[in-house]
Structure formats: C-alpha cells, structure tokens
Amino acid sequence: MGNFTTLALFCFSMLAVRAVNSQGTLVYSLGGWRPPAGITMVLDGLTAFMLATVNLVAFLIAVYAVDYMEKFTSKWKFYSLYLLMLAGMNGVLISGDIFNLFVFLEIASVASYALVAFGTERHELEAAFKYAVMGTVGSLFILIGIVFLYSFSSTLNMADMANFFGEKGPGNVTIMVSVLFIMGFGLKAALVPFHAWLPDAHPSPPAPISAILSGILIKSLGVYTLVRIFYNVIGVTPKLSSVLMFLGALSMVIGVFLAIGQWDFKRLLAYHSISQIGYVVLGIGLGTPLGILGGLFHLFNHSVFKSLLFLNSGAVEYATGTRDLRKTGGLFQKMPLTGSANLIASMSIAGIPPFNGFWSKLIIIIAAVQAGRYGYAGWAVLASILTLASFTKVMKYVYYGKLEEKWNKVKEVPFFMKLAMAALAIICLFGGALLIGQINRAFLQPAVEVILNGRNYGAMLFKRIL
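The structure assignment produced for this chain is given below.
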C-alpha cells in the first residue's frame, strides 16, 4: 500500500507540473477563508519542481524498500513513519503560510528522528538522539524567527508578508530574523558549520532511510525553505547573497575533504551530502538566472545520484554484511548491476560528462565566472576533482581488485532493489536532457522564474486570488 501511495503522489506531482505550465500559479484557500486571514496552499513553478523531485525519489526508494526491509521486523512501522515524513515534506512545499510551513516541517522532522533510530542498535539510537537534539535547536531558531516576523508584520501569510516587506523595506528586525533562519534552516540543510548531526544520522539507519534523508529531506526542509523565505518573502540583499555563497563554498570544500579519509561507505556518502548541498546553495546564492538554474538543476541531480549511492551502499551491506571499504573488493564479479549503477552514480557526483552531475556543476561554475566570482568557481572545480578521487577509492576497494574467498557466495540483490537502482541510474545517464527545449521550459524554468521574481511573489499571489 505504501508503494501505491508514493506512486500516486508522484503522478499527482507530474499533474501539478502540467497544471502550472497550463494555468500558472494556483492558490487554494482552506475552508473558504481567503488570505491573509485564512490558510492557503500554493502551487507555483518552484513548488511543482520540488514536488516532482521529492515524490519521484521517494517512490523509487519505496520500491527498493520492498525487498530490503524484509530483514527488519515491524515493516508496517517503517512505512507508517516513511509516509508521515513524506506528508510533512509535501506540506512544507505547498504551504503558503509560514507557521503551517513550520508545522509540516516538524511533522517531517519528528518522523525522521524515529526513522534514524529504526534499527534500534546502540549507534542508531545515539545518532537519533544527537539528530533530535540538534534538529530541535534548529526548529527553535526557526520558530523564534517566525515570532519576530509576525510581531513585525502582523501576518503569517507569506504573500502578505512579502507585500509588507516590499512596502516597508528591510530593517533591524529582518537582519536578526535572517540570522535566525540561516542557523535554523542551515542546520536542516546541513550547511557547514551547522552540519555536525549529519555524519552520524545519515549512515546509521537502514539504506532506504539514509537515501531519503540525504536525497530529499535536507533539500525540502532546508534548501527550499531558505530559498522561499529569503527570495520570495524577506528579499535577498547583496550581503545576504554573499553569506549564502560563502556558506555554500565552505560546505562544498570542507565536506569533500572530510569525505576523502572515510572508510565507512555510508559515512563517506554522508560527508559528500554536505559538499554537494554546498554547490546548490552557491548556485542559488549567486542570484543570477544562470546561477539559480544551475543550483536548482543540481538539487534535482543530487537527489537522484546521492539516493542511488546510498541504495548501492545498502545493496553491498545487504549482500556482505559490512560497510567497511577495506573488507570488500572484487564485488563487480558477483554484483554487476550494483557495480554498474555505483559507477554511473560516482561519475555523476564527480561531474564527469555526459552524466547529469556534469551539466549542473558546469552551469554553476560558468555562472560564478560570469558574476566575477572567480574564487568560488575555482573552489567548485577543486571540490569536483576531490570528489572524483574519493569515488575512485570507492570503486577500487569495493568493486574492483581481487575477490576474496569469503565473498564467493555473494550474489546480486533481489529484484525490487535492482529495479530501483536501475531506474535511478538511467536518470543519471539521461538527466542532462532536462536542459533541452520543452522539458527545461516546463520543469526548470518556471521554478527559476519564481525565485527571480523575488517579493513580487506576494503581489502575484493576491492577483490570482482576486
């Protein structure tokens, strides 16, 4: 039932993309109460893009979990928490009210805390406790920021708030709120220096949970919320843009340096999540049309190839019982599909052409050069080279080399696990097509336009209502 639910969500998301392209922004007022007094749900280009990304990856991870979660008891509890977390993420994306955005964010967060502890082993419980404590601190920063925004603007509706800031302009309150939101949403997105929870939380749970945490949760609760509030509600200033670019570059470089020395497969991938989120924030922080396009495209690409890498690591652990790179080797002979999928995902995350990660990284680097940010462009290139070195190590120690005798009985993983990995690998191979013609105009460009419109988001929404 859980798989049919995620499939239905993905189908509805694709219908949402179509609806935005044919009808423009759609606004729904709950209970007939019109904004700003009532609660609204908003479907615009950015929301549709994020819904399609989140629900595509969530569906394929659910397919993978059909076989993988058989070795765990209480499978129904996993699907209950999984769907609750997915409901929270979808709610965050469609909410037009900043307090309800926070409520949905907490629903997804609480479900994710429980999922991290799902295996109930000591290290999982420790990671879940650390994640819950730091996540609660981040939520507190966000809630305090919302309180200050409400006391300043007397509204919780984001469109109404955008109109207010458009008239009044930024003040001392917005500076303080921006700091609170950078800390709060930056923690949810695992930006350096707010990343300390992620290297423990992402490797500890079962592979499908690791994949959804890294693939879509940190983007929907962290990156999306940062972008929506800063660009469409408060408004981005040059100083704020500089802060976002700096945090993005810092995450990009520190994350990859920390990843290189790891020998735990999933922990290595966790540090790369920090690094790749840096690319997304750097691109969006540039604030140029090309930079935002590259940032959003890399957000989609990272959702795909990082989810695939975590599913690959889960397949290796499922077959061998270990995540230690030094204890494996030669598994390509026994697990050709998993090895091929891992090679594709590794080339994608390293930015090797013609895989999808290459195109989004190239756009971000070109955008940085065009904006005169040559230093940031150089750091992006360096991080990509180091990423390639890191995943060369993974391929060498896990899939190539001599097959040890103890792995002679290893065999490829069950059908549904292979199906999910193959589907994600195909997207990595042909993901660059999203930049071509009508697909780009229907999927990526509407999201870019919403961000570029800035606080006009408010005026545009009220026109749709009236």
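Interim note for the steering committee: The first helix runs from residue 2 to 23. The mean pLDDT is 87.
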